[in-house]
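To illustrate the input format used throughout this study, we show a single complete record. The first block contains the structure-token representation of the backbone; no residue identities are included at this stage. The design step must infer an amino acid for every position from geometry alone.
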């Protein structure tokens, strides 16, 4: 047992970043994303492709690319189906100092990874990308989904003074040890990242933001967005945030790092 713990500690000392990518039959997007990550990442890292079913076509792609990209591996979601449990399984299997939650269908945020790491290196505990401030943009995807996301984030920022301008984006990076501190309970869709955004502010952790250009579903596939279930879950966390964060609206601070192309 001690030998196993020492091996795990040695792995963690060597890997800076664990990238968690929840998937459901995203074979073509996984193939594209892995080729891009392999080309642009210089930092020591691992990529965990987290799946629900062994029949998922993403697993086959990981096996095909494993020889040329040894940092990637597939991880079975062992806590139950869905994004939230996939993230929990990924964090549990990760060994990196920092953890990045990433959406397989979004290419744009790749260029923000280095800046997110830089903010953590400078003392931040939790870094979120933003599509709605500092030059960030959201392109493509469902018109209704985009409208609801913009309105929700605007109202959340306006009403409680949230220091994160895009609490609902799925692109988040954090120190691995803070995950368990947050006591996350969400089970519906990507609402877990909204819950994380609220609870890191509730705990007064050091926060950062990096603007991105987000292009939803650039290479196809099917979104898992379900209006009724997702709306109710997000609304629940919206009111939780209002009730828990309103009094601290002027006390949270956020560091912003704008990507510098070519530097």
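Output of the design step:
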């Amino acid at each position: 047992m001690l030998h196993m713990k020492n091996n795990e500690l040695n792995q963690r000392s060597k890997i800076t970043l664990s990238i968690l990518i929840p998937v459901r039959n995203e074979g073509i997007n996984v193939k594209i994303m892995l080729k891009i990550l392999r080309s642009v990442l210089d930092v020591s890292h691992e990529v965990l492709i987290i799946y629900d079913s062994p029949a998922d076509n993403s697993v086959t792609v990981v096996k095909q690319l494993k020889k040329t990209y040894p940092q990637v591996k597939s991880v079975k979601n062992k806590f139950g189906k869905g994004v939230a449990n996939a993230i929990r399984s990924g964090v549990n299997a990760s060994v990196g100092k920092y953890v990045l939650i990433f959406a397989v269908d979004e290419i744009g945020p790749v260029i923000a990874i280095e800046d997110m790491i830089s903010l953590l290196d400078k003392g931040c505990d939790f870094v979120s990308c933003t599509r709605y401030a500092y030059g960030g943009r959201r392109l493509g995807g469902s018109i209704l989904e985009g409208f609801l996301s913009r309105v929700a984030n605007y109202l959340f920022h306006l009403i409680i003074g949230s220091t994160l301008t895009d609490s609902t984006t799925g692109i988040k990076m954090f120190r691995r040890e803070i995950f368990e501190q947050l006591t996350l309970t969400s089970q519906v869709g990507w609402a877990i990242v909204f819950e994380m955004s609220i609870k890191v502010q509730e705990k007064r952790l050091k926060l950062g933001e990096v603007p991105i250009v987000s292009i939803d579903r650039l290479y196809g596939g099917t979104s898992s967005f379900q209006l009724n279930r997702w709306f109710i879950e997000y609304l629940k966390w919206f009111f939780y945030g209002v009730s828990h964060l309103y009094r601290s609206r002027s006390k949270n601070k956020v560091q912003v790092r704008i990507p510098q192309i070519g530097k």
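Structural context for interpreting the output: The radius of gyration is 18 Å. The chain has eight helices and ten strands.
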